[in-house]
Amino acid sequence: MDFRFDIIVEYAPFFVKGTLLTIGLSLAGILIGTVLGLIIGLGKMMRNKILAFPFELYISFFRGTPLFVQILLIHFGVVPTFTGETNAVLAAILALSLNSAAYISEIFRAGIQSIDNGQMEAARSLGMNHVQAMRYVILPQAVKRMIPPLGNEFVTLIKESSLAAVIAAPELMYWGRAMAGQYFRVWEPYLLAALIYLVLTLSLSFLLNIIERRLKTE
């Protein structure tokens, strides 16, 4: 196999830019998705079924439809409706955030419900209201149990950010496809992209393992 390192060197600056954007998209998706996921998870847990229904509908839609389709709908439909024009980076951030929020909400819900009901009762008996009990008693315990599934979701989000290439967001996979299209090569662009994704996911997994070990020792 004739492996051409010269085109890798030529495209190296573009892959660096693409990697930075991939990291940015992933971080934005993780941060926004986590905040939205907590809100949606708490909303789904409300005892009033009417109030909880919109949150359940949200989760069902984003978990039941492909992220690929969601990206296209947001890029060609939602973003132009509000801005008057398409914006690939904005659409990618929105799609990744909204999609991950649906999965993260279920992680929060499962984590909170795994805490014994006696914890809430004990907190309320000490004079805390429901919000204070959730903030100071329930959530700190639940977060420790949620680290592994949250870590898996974050790793998945990094890999799924590659779908943003279909709307021409200049992230890592976009430049891999550009190299492949220009030189009609397969191994160089896609192996390089795969290697970079592997480094990103392994680095995040390593960081999450450290956080998990520290939380266990506290």
Question: Which helices and strands, and how do they pair?
Answer:
Elements: H1 5-44, H2 49-64, H3 67-83, H4 88-113, H5 117-125, H6 130-160, H7 172-183, H8 187-217
Walk me through the structure.
It is a single chain. Helix content is 83%, strand content 0%. It contains eight helices and no strands. Helix 1 crosses helix 8, helix 6 (130-160) runs antiparallel to helix 8 and helix 7 runs antiparallel to helix 8. It is globular. The mean pLDDT is 92.
List keywords for this structure.
218 residues, globular, mainly alpha, 0% strand
Record field, number of beta strands: 0
Distance between the termini: 53 Å
What are the low-pLDDT stretches, counting only 5+ consecutive residues below 50? Answer: none
Sheet/helix structural class? mainly alpha
Shape: globular
Helical fraction equals over 70%
Mean pLDDT: 92
Largest sheet: none
Strand residue percentage: under 5%
Order of helices and strands: HHHHHHHH
Oligomer designation: single chain
Helix count equals 8
Radius of gyration: 21 Å
A few lines on this structure:
This protein has 218 residues and is mostly helical. 83% of the residues lie in helices and 0% in strands.
